[in-house]
Amino acid sequence: MRGWQPGARLLFWACWCLPGTWGSWRCGYCRTNAVSGEHTTDTKSLVGKLVILAAAMFGFGFLMVPLYDIFCDITGFGGKIDTTRPAVVESQLPDLSRTVTIEFVTSVNEYAPWEFRPAVTSMEIHPGEFYETTFYARNLTPRRIVGQAVPSIAPGAAARYLQKTECFCFTSQQFEADEAKDMPVRFIVDTDLPEYVDRITLAYTFFVIDQVVSSSGTTGI
């Protein structure tokens, strides 16, 4: 600051040191840089946490389907029931003081060439006693086809209490051209069925799983 007039030097030092002037601006600039650095660090940390959260949610979603299937298999929740094998039922005394209505409903998947209906639309049963009914199905095509019936039960809370010891849904069904069948279902409703359940709907949907069956027994579309 050589060559500066005394008044100019005094003004410079006043601006440097006094609040609200150059000194304040200089300190504010430093503080802004410091805060900006902190924000950058916080942003990086937040992004990292969000990436970890997204990965965890993806993994959880991937596991939801098998976990849900296991839960439904154990509890019968949602009307999901085992369709692959007969139930093993322990001997029990029928509860003749209680009557439950069983409704039978049938449907076919879109464009399926079936005629499919229950022999009766409903039955009055006593828990603990075995009953049997049949379902009629007919192949409406001029060729052999193979079908599979998929059952469901409503309300879902009743699924674990309606046990089938014989059912056409346990295996696929082969039909010759224009062939018709009466397919049996033998079942029992457990005496532990909750008291509030007085009506159960057993529904079947028939699907075509193979439209051509060769004489050698092999199948193919």
Mean pLDDT, to the nearest integer, reads 75
CATH class of the domain at 100-210: Mainly Beta
Distance between the termini: 97 Å
> What count of helical segments does DSSP give?
2
Please state roughly what percent of the residues sit in beta strands, choosing from under 5%, 5-15%, 15-25%, 25-35%, 35-45% or over 45%: 25-35%
- SSE order in H/E notation? HHEEEEEEEEE
Rg is 37 Å
Q: Kindly report the name of the CATH homologous superfamily of the domain at 100-210.
A: Ctag/Cox11
Strand line-up in the sheet with most strands = 3-1-9-5-7
Question: How many beta strands in the DSSP annotation?
Answer: 9
**CATH architecture designation of the domain at 100-210:** Sandwich
What ranges have pLDDT less than 50 throughout 5 or more consecutive residues?
18-30, 62-79, 211-221
Overall, the morphology is flat
What's the short story on this structure?
The protein is of the alpha+beta class and 221 residues long. Among the domains are: 43-79; 100-210, Ctag/Cox11 (Pfam 04442).
